[in-house]
Specification:
Archaeosine Trna-guanine Transglycosylase, Chain: A, domain 4, two-stranded antiparallel ribbon, alpha+beta
Length: 67
């Protein structure tokens, strides 16, 4: 499937915990039952060292139209 989206916001955070404290974790990882579970999901792919080096972005998008 393909969809056209518009980026409506980009927010910078120092870690996934910081991001998921500020952002609603249910919008970021809908199946997560808690903020801690959402952080654990990201931690499977990105280490604490990666987060410290690269930081974290929350990219907010809006559906414009289906293609």
């Amino acid at each position: 499937d393909v969809a056209r989206v518009e980026i409506v916001g980009i927010r910078h955070y120092s870690s996934f915990l910081d991001m998921l404290t500020s952002e609603d974790y249910r919008r970021v990882i809908p199946r997560a039952q808690s903020r801690e579970e959402a952080v654990a999901e990201y931690s499977k792919y990105y280490s604490a060292a990666d987060q410290e080096m690269y930081h974290t972005l929350a990219i907010e998008i809006k559906l414009v139209t289906n293609m």
